[in-house]
Design a protein that fits this description.
By secondary structure, the chain is an alpha+beta fold. 31% of the residues lie in helices and 21% in strands. It has helices at residues 2-31, 35-38, 63-77, 163-172, 176-204, 210-228, 281-296, 304-308, 332-335, 338-349, 408-414, 520-528, 534-543, and strands at 43-49, 54-57, 90-93, 105-114, 117-127, 153-157, 160-161, 234-242, 249-258, 261-265, 310-313, 363-369, 376-381, 417-424, 440-446, 452-455, 479-482, 493-496, 501-505. Helix 1 (2-31) packs antiparallel against helix 5. The longest helix has 30 residues, at 2-31. The radius of gyration is 23 Å and the shape is globular. The termini are far apart. The mean pLDDT is 94.
């Protein structure tokens, strides 16, 4: 009986740790200046043990931020040893190869001290809209053009802020007030996490996190091994072609499933390119691991032990394993395609259990003032998720990143832009027994009748839409145009002249199963709701 009670108590404590992380994340969202963090939840927060291993993460957050952060704490402690830290100290870096893959994401780590000893760490990551350089663009030839890179350093020593660091940030940012505020919001959210963690330990009379760490890691490792073993052992390969920048890019994966573990080799993917869509291996590993876990271990909490069973490797110098000084600004174009690449391998292992391909890369919508009024506006446009084996795909849903979009009202208040329309794109979901999720159409112009610049760095799947599965059809490809007749065909910078508007149509998700097998009543409802045109429905009726 006592053993059972101990297990229950440990599970309660485990859930309380997740609550600490969630409060930490919510503190960040409340304090953040940038709408992409405050409104869209583009962030991560987590609790780590005294060894720098991730114990728990917030529900709020993206796989790219969380899973890269899982390795960041230990990597940062290699530069600033734990025994040199004092109460109140806080570390920070935006090094893409130590953190979340590009210079806009800052990782902040705060040690939690109890009776003079470090008992754990609180870490968080979020996106800073501007850190100098070319800004949000794939045009840079090297990472040195993309913004200021900070090695691991102190953001705070004891109670003293590193104002030299903050001065460099603000003097290199086009929006210095917001940049400073966003970095301080990371510091503040970690302080909230430290307070809540120490309160929790005091409530349970804990002097360290050793016992709960052992419990969390043992249970997570055992659960992960059992879940991964559901997939038949073997070697599975998959290939995916993306638009790229100047030329198409090929992603390749060789997945080896053994008893309770999965190893993926991404070697064979295209070499790194001279544009900022390359992806450091840490970010590639984060999203590739997520794709596997989303299908096979969705109920196992994300922590160091549940991630250890999956290894992602690649030879250096590829688009999925770019080395310094390759430009990496829009690294999520590659990284966020990797879950679908993994699911393509797993479809061979578990046919009939895997959702169709989704829109993939988040369409980061970056607009800036090109006239008398300088501004920077950052938002996201969402595509459709792939249809699932037993139901339709979700429309305008950010898979795999999981973030939301900045509400139109907030975007228009923050910058002199106006959203003229935002609506579903009819017929954009791939046809199938289960329909792919719909993309969306967004039309934006200047509220002050001045020229704007738009970065097309993250507009992917303009050539062909996401593939269906089990005879489902492809989702619609994306389209971007300007009302002056310009069509966006690459990932460069585009001028939107005063008085003109940009029109975006995001990709739809792939369909699942043969379209003729779709329930006719559901198809008629799709037509009635404006999700499928009568013409498209008629083609399916004819096929029947």
């Amino acid at each position: 009986m006592s053993n059972t009670l101990d297990i229950v108590a440990q599970n309660v404590l485990w859930n309380r740790l997740v609550s600490v992380c969630e409060e930490q994340a919510n503190a960040l969202m409340r304090a953040a200046f940038g709408a992409i963090v405050r409104e869209a939840g583009d962030l991560s927060a987590g609790v780590f043990d005294a060894n720098g291993d991730m114990l728990a993460q917030a529900v709020t957050g993206t796989p790219g931020h969380v899973n890269t952060m899982a390795a960041s704490v230990r990597a940062m402690l290699d530069f600033v040893p734990a025994d040199s830290l004092e109460p109140g100290d806080v570390l920070v870096t935006n090094d893409p190869w130590l953190g979340a893959g590009h210079v806009f994401d800052f990782v902040v780590v705060t040690p939690a001290f109890l009776d003079g000893e470090i008992v754990g760490y609180l870490a968080s990551t979020s996106h800073i809209v501007d850190i100098g350089g070319r800004g949000w663009s794939a045009e840079a030839a090297s990472v040195f053009e993309e913004g200021v890179i900070f090695p691991v350093m102190h953001l705070r020593r004891g109670e003293t802020l590193n104002e030299d660091f903050l001065a460099i940030v603000t003097n290199n940012s086009r929006i210095p007030h917001e940049a400073r505020g966003d970095i301080l919001s990371l510091l503040s959210c970690n302080d909230t996490g430290v307070t809540r963690l120490l309160d929790l330990m005091g409530e349970y009379g804990l002097t360290d996190l050793n016992a709960v760490s052992e419990f969390v890691f043992e249970r997570s490792a055992a659960g992960t091994r059992k879940a991964l073993a559901r997939a038949p052992q073997g070697v599975y390969e998959n290939t995916m072609t993306l638009d790229g920048y100047d030329a198409p890019i090929e992603l390749k994966a060789r997945m080896t499933i053994s008893d309770g573990s999965i190893a993926v080799d991404l070697s064979g993917s295209s070499p790194a390119v001279e544009r900022g869509i390359n992806c450091p291996l840490n970010y590639s590993a984060a999203y590739a691991s997520f794709g596997i876990r989303a299908l096979l271990t969705p109920e196992i909490p994300n922590n160091q032990a549940s991630l250890d069973a999956i290894t992602i490797t690649a030879e250096s110098g590829l688009v999925v394993s770019a080395e310094r000084p390759s430009p990496v600004s829009a690294r999520h174009v590659i990284g966020q395609a990797l879950p679908d690449l993994m699911l393509g391998c797993l479809e061979q292992a578990l046919p009939g259990e895997v959702l169709a391909e989704s829109a993939g890369a988040l369409w980061t919508l970056s607009l800036s003032g090109a006239g008398k009024t300088p501004f920077t506006s950052l938002n996201v446009a969402l595509g459709g998720m792939g249809a699932r084996p037993r139901t339709d795909g979700l429309s305008t849903t950010a898979f795999p990143s999981g973030v939301g979009s900045v509400p139109v009202e907030a975007a228009e208040v923050a910058s002199p832009v106006i959203y003229h329309s935002k609506e579903f794109v009819c017929d954009s979901g791939g046809a199938g027994q289960y329909r792919g999720g719909l993309g969306q159409q967004i039309e934006i112009g200047s509220r002050i009748n001045e020229d704007m610049f738009m970065s097309a760095a993250a507009f992917e799947r303009l050539t062909s839409g996401p593939e269906g599965r089990q005879n489902g059809k492809r989702g619609a490809n994306g389209e971007v145009s300007i009302t002056d007749g310009t069509r966006v065909t690459d990932k460069g910078m585009y001028r939107i002249p005063a008085g003109e508007r940009v029109i975006l149509k995001t990709p739809g998700g792939g369909g699942y199963g043969g379209p003729s097998a779709r329930d006719r009543t559901l198809l008629d409802q799709d037509v009635e709701n404006g999700l499928v045109s009568q013409h498209a429905a008629q083609k399916i009726y004819t096929a029947e």
